[in-house]
Structure formats: structure tokens, C-alpha cells
Recover the amino acids of this structure.
């Protein structure tokens, strides 16, 4: 997706931006389906199909509802963070913006998620350098919450994963340290200023906005909301095992799902890496689990979390013109 300018008119027109987003979603879905088929053939396609056929589908409704709870809480967090930045958009419009962003998590390096600041700019005229900190804070607090959930069970279930958790935690801690210590942050921006005043000015604007998002009170609020939101999906994973008649404790389900989410973080939407971790992790830690059950559980929870969101986001993309028109009218 061609990134818009921070000020003025986007480099690409809105139809170009949205058309590229839709094409990328279609390509990613096709590749993901192909990948799942290959993996299922490798692990045992017929056994996986049998497990899906015998799944207690009545339990899938609460799984989807728990995912909707996750989306709702994270949408509240996005709305709250924009409010902290002095950007006030009608809640209904912001819900549409957030849902649109769900389709973008499968974009390369998740760069497509800047569609949310982009849409805010189209509606309100606020520069993206002011709104991107809300996106960064939103995703950073998600990462911290998942790390906390994974850390709770790391020593009990998978001590070898401590290094990965510590590495990810160190990166986040370093970023927070730079944000918290203003002289350090301004020194880093000063180094950039030697190369480009324009880039440095935008970084300074973004930095000052980010500080307001990670002040003690909003930081506590957003972390708390994120913990509940992501634990809801862990509970959904536990219900998936219940539907497959596999006995797995809620604590182990929480660890397996959160650890797989951390493991898949380098890839857009965790594609491939999180999916594999949700198969291989349970096979190592759940007694008596078959390959078919592990693969079925992975497919079901990913469909209910990642792909459910992508579908909702794709629908929102189809109605993007109406969303923008409504938002501009109410914000005008």
C-alpha cells in the first residue's frame, strides 16, 4: 500500500489504496489456504477432516463471541487513545475504522495497519504523525499483554522459550525507556535531524503524542484492557479443545495460545509461524493429543480469531466510501 503524505493529499488516491489492500487480502487468503492444505496433507488430511466433522459446533458460537469481545475491547482502546490525543471521532465511525484495520494485519510487516491513521486523516484532517502513535501504542500494549500471559506459564510448560520471551520483552522495555526519558528521545531525534529536518520534525510530533498515550494512567488502562481482550481468545482456544473432546487445562491453553502469538509476531498475522506453533506446541505438551486433533484445533482457532477479523475487515473495506462520507459529515 502506497503510504499517504503526512500533510495534504495522499500520494495515491483513495481508490488505489483500497484496491491494493483488497488485492493483497485476496492473495494472502489464497496462499494461506494452499499452505493449510499442504500442512494438512503432511500431518494427516483424513484424520484432521474426521476431527473437524466430529467437532461440537455448538461450542464455536461462544468462541466467536469471545473473539468479538477481544475486538470490542481493543476498539475501545483505539477510541480511548485517539481521545488522549485530542482527536474526537464519533464512536460508530471509529468502530468502522478499527474493523477496517483488522483486514490489514495480514499485510507485509503489518504496514497496512496504517490504514487506520490514514482514514482518521481523511476524515479529520489530522496529520498521520499525530495519529500513528495511537496505533503504535495500541499494538505495543497488545504485545505486552500477550507477553505477560505467555510469561505466566513459560517456566511451567516450556522453559526453553524463556530466551525468546526475554528478547521480545527487552526490545519493548528499550523502546519504553526511550519514550520515558525525554532527553534520550530528543537526542535520538537530534541524530536524525542531521540527515533530515522534515523527518526529525515528524518524529518529534509523533514522540510527543506517544508520551501522552503511555503516561501512567492511560498505560495502566490500555494494558488492563489488552490483558482481558487477549485472555478472551485464550479461553476461546480452550473451548476449541473442549469441542474436540480433548482435556486441556485453561492455564495450558492460555500459555499455548499466547506463546504461539508471540512466536508468530514477526510474520503478518502470524501466518505460518503461529499456525505451526499452535500445532507443534500442543503435540509436545498435551498428553495423548493426535496430529489430527492438534491441526484441527489450530485451524479452528485461527479461523475464529485471525480470519474472522480479516473477513469483517474485508466487508468494511467494501463499505469504505460510506464510512468516510459519514465520518466527514459528522466531524465537519
Amino acid at each position: 500500500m502506497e503510504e499517504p503524505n503526512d500533510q495534504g493529499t495522499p500520494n495515491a488516491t483513495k481508490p488505489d489504496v483500497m484496491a491494493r489492500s483488497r488485492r493483497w487480502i485476496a492473495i494472502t487468503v489464497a496462499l494461506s489456504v494452499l499452505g493449510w492444505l499442504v500442512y494438512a496433507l503432511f500431518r494427516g488430511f483424513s484424520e484432521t477432516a474426521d476431527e473437524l466433522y466430529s467437532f461440537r459446533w455448538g461450542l464455536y458460537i461462544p468462541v466467536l463471541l469471545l473473539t468479538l469481545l477481544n475486538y470490542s475491547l481493543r476498539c475501545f482502546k483505539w477510541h480511548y487513545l485517539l481521545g488522549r490525543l485530542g482527536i474526537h471521532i464519533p464512536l460508530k465511525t471509529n468502530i468502522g475504522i478499527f474493523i477496517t484495520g483488522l483486514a490489514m494485519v495480514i499485510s507485509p510487516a503489518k504496514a497496512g495497519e496504517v490504514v487506520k491513521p490514514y482514514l482518521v486523516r481523511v476524515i479529520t484532517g489530522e496529520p498521520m504523525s499525530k495519529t500513528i502513535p495511537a496505533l503504535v501504542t495500541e499494538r505495543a500494549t497488545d504485545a505486552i499483554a500477550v507477553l505477560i500471559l505467555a510469561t505466566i506459564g513459560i517456566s511451567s510448560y516450556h522453559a526453553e522459550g524463556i530466551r525468546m520471551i526475554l528478547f521480545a520483552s527487552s526490545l519493548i522495555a528499550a523502546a519504553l525507556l526511550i519514550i520515558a526519558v525525554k532527553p534520550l528521545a530528543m537526542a535520538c531525534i537530534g541524530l536524525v535531524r542531521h540527515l533530515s529536518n522534515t523527518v526529525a520534525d515528524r518524529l518529534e510530533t509523533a514522540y510527543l503524542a506517544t508520551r501522552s498515550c503511555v503516561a501512567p494512567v492511560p498505560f495502566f488502562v490500555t494494558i488492563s484492557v489488552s490483558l482481558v481482550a487477549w485472555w478472551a481468545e485464550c479461553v476461546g482456544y480452550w473451548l476449541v479443545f473442549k469441542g474436540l473432546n480433548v482435556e486441556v487445562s485453561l492455564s495450558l491453553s492460555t500459555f499455548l495460545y499466547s506463546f504461539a502469538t508471540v512466536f508468530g509476531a514477526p510474520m503478518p498475522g502470524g501466518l505460518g509461524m503461529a499456525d505451526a506453533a499452535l500445532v507443534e506446541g500442543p503435540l509436545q505438551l498435551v498428553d495423548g493429543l493426535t496430529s489430527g486433533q492438534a491441526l484441527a484445533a489450530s485451524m479452528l482457532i485461527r479461523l475464529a480469531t485471525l480470519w474472522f477479523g480479516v473477513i469483517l475487515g474485508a466487508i468494511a473495506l467494501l463499505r469504505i466510501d460510506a464510512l468516510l462520507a459519514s465520518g466527514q459529515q459528522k466531524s465537519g
